[in-house]
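WARN  no MSA supplied for this record, continuing single-sequence
INFO  ligand: adenosine-5'-diphosphate
INFO  echoing inputs
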Amino acid sequence: MLHILILNLGSTSFKYKLFSVAAEERLLSEGSVENIGSQGRYRVKTPEGGTAEGSCACASHADALALCMEAMKQTRVPVELGSLDAIGYKAVHGGTISGSHVVTDALLDEMEKMAPLAPAHNPVYLRMMCSVASLYPSLTQIACFETSFHRTVPLQRAVYGIPLEWAERYGLRRYGFHGSSHSYIAWKMRQLAPHARRVVSIHLGGSSSMCAIADGQSVATSMGATPQSGLFHNNRVGDLDVFCLPVLAEALGGYPQALEALSGQSGFLGLSGVSNDLRDIEKAAQAGDARAELAIAAFADNIVGYIGMFTAYLGGADALAFTGGIGRNSAEVRRRVADNLQFLGVKLDASRNGGNAEGRISAPDSAAEVWVLETNEELMVMRGCAELLNAR
Ligand code: ADP
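INFO  complex generated
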């Protein structure tokens, strides 16, 4: 039996799932720490209902790991880091390295090289991997890259209109991200609706991306060389004409300031002027705030645009699947998207859509099915790790 701890790191957040894998996959514990860098808030639970939560000083992601290991013991999950078969990471950008790989110095170097394309993610993972390596040198660490699922996107859809040698020399091409979520949706849809061969996976959350899936494989995705691109995100810009950048750099005092503003003050926050959280923006729009209304309308419109592009690539769509914090919980965004998909014959069941439960939300006579699913990124990362460990 293998014990694998999967880590999902954000700039100030830490999430984990602990699995045992033998003939069957079992979740033993899951939890999170928010607010890393000051007073961390942690919450740990087991599928049997055990919970431990609280707050305590938490300076780094390594502290968050120690905190969760300690909290797990309180919920009677007595796992020591030293007894794990591996720690697996939902790592973000490995450049030309994709798939699941044991963390080595060469892999860390590649992640370091790609850090400018994933500045909010790669440095956090690098620091964590290095501190685990120094504290537990014999513990196997495995990185499963978010880009991996998109390896099947055809080359003509992955290149930018730049000199081809720049793609090789500087790694500038469309990689796509959220691979563990989109691959989970691909897998889950095969269980739930095996007849749906052409699926558009719509992951909407703090970061949002979409993926066209044909027979279980990614054939197009909305994110490009970096996870800042495609649809706009909570505070991040999404796609922007690159020639806006010198204008902003001039106005804001330099390129670093412009990039900072595009990753911290843009997206839902910048457009709505209300909040980076769609819940606040929906409330403001209902109360008549025109900018909040515009932000929601622009987001839904952007999604519709990608669905149009993706259904062209797929030659039609059998199913759409919404996931992520917004996709799972915002009936309003789903309704606005579906209202604009009459060309596809999409019809929602209004009460199922409003109910926000997992499952099918389209009307029985809808030409394409519409689903709401809870994603499980850690499960896919765990599978990548288990495959690698079993092959060794
Ligand atoms: P991340 O991408 O950071 O993992 P999530 O997928 O958890 O984030 O999504 C978080 C976002 O989901 C929040 O920023 C919030 O805007 C949105 N969200 C959560 N619940 C709701 C809801 N009931 N209605 C609208 N939006 C919601």
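The mean pLDDT is 96.
INFO  checksum written, moving to next record
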